């Protein structure tokens, strides 16, 4: 679940909702799909609220990526 | 001493003199002048007449047809221009003026011409075509930013991304964004950024004068944007500023903040979507279960399940009917067979086997007698027919006729029937009964009948 991208997760979620909406789906299958969809919702939410915020980088003159923050640029 | 008359110059002489003064001054033979056009007149013969002015002064100007031909714009009142020409006097009017040899637009005007020219060229090459535009991914993981490392633009972009979609990584590719070295640096950084795995690149700068933004109107920048494998959102200046880069870019943002908004989704929107989906899923699964429970209840309440005996009763009754029917059928079949047997037993032959043999013997004997009788009759009939035929043959035999005293006359092997076929001295043969004689005709008498 962690490996698939945010976009794919949301797409999959959409697909499952459509499948469940169509109604002609076996009960066992419906429950499986529901469980999967709930896991997707959870993983998406978690990704959004990831505690470790991404750091901004800058490519310096030596071609190296180093940390960069806007605060540094404030005069 | 000159007379009073001779003291005074003719105007034409003075003007001619002044003209020579101008013409001989090497400074005035070629001068560069800048100013604003007013009183512009395009003479029917193609010469241009106008006034050049600045805040405090003015000078008349004329540009002859052959020079005017080389203009790359149409001059009009209010335009700032740079002109090259010589100063001379027009004696007939007593005015000095500049004879313009070349003229180009000053400042913005000049830039504008270049801009229009490049825009047209790149458009015709297809660099702005909608089908060349790459799609901007909805949920980017990594975004490249090409702009100055200081200033409002980078601040706006980073704070917007942080606010909307903090889970996204950013890499800044710092670049000068104004001045002569801005364009080559932007080009270099676009190429550099393409070495990284980025989902999208934001390229731009904050607001400024048209000269400040000019790097984004350079052909090299336009081509680098076009060649980029990674989609680029351009974000140059303010809403009203349209640069060449904006036309080539896969998406044009009105401002750097706008570009950041286009590059990333808002986490609030995603949270709302997720919340909605969760609600929708719960409703769906609940409805799904409800429907199934209703179906189960339906089945549970059906008559058969409530009255299992009824299922059995029907079968029981059916079995009885079948047994009854089977017995009836068996009885009927038995009776039919008995009747048939009776009928056969009562047959005469079976009761009198000898009678049958006797009658067969009689039939053979009868047939034998009949056949003998038939053959007898047949033979008698044939014998009678044979005698009849023989008698007839006897009657017609020509030799029998000779026996009765008739004779046949032949001449040269042919039988003669009439007298006219015979001449005197003909040799003839006469056939009689039991022989023939040869004779020569001596006499002939024909009977008239």
Key terms:
heterodimer; A: 75 residues; mainly alpha; two-stranded antiparallel ribbon; 3 helices; B: 449 residues; alpha/beta; OB fold (Dihydrolipoamide Acetyltransferase, E2P); Rossmann fold; five-stranded mixed β-barrel; five-stranded parallel beta sheet; 15 helices
Note down, in words, how this protein is organized.
The complex is a heterodimer of chains A (75) and B (449). With 75 residues, chain A is mainly alpha-helical. The radius of gyration of chain A is 20 Å and the shape is rod-shaped. Chain A has helices spanning 6-22, 27-48, 70-73; strands at residues 56-59, 65-67. Chain B has 449 residues and is an alpha/beta fold. Chain B folds into four domains: 11-106, Nucleic acid-binding proteins (OB fold (Dihydrolipoamide Acetyltransferase, E2P), Beta Barrel); 112-269, Hypothetical protein af1403, domain 2 (Rossmann fold); 342-387; 402-440, no CATH class. In chain B, helix 5 (152-164) runs parallel beside helix 9 (256-263) and helix 6 (182-193) runs parallel beside helix 7. The chains are: A mainly alpha (75), B alpha/beta (449). The A-B interface holds A 5-7, 10, 13-14, 16-17, 20-21, 23, 25, 27, 30-31, 34, 37-38, 41, 44-45, 47-48, 50, 53-59, 65, 68, 70, 73, 75 and B 137-139, 141, 149-151, 154-155, 158-159, 166-174, 192, 267, 270-271, 273-274, 277-278, 280-281, 284-285, 288-289, 291-292. Strand 1 (56-59) of chain A pairs parallel with strand 7 of chain B.
Helix-strand pattern of chain B = HHEEEHEEHEHEHEHEHEHHHHHHHEEEE
Helix content of chain B: 40-55%
- Biggest interface, chains and residue tallies: A-B, 36 and 36 residues
Largest sheet of chain B: 5 strands, mixed, barrel
Low-confidence stretches of chain B: none
CATH homologous superfamily label of the largest domain in chain B: Hypothetical protein af1403, domain 2
Q: How many strands of chain B?
A: 14
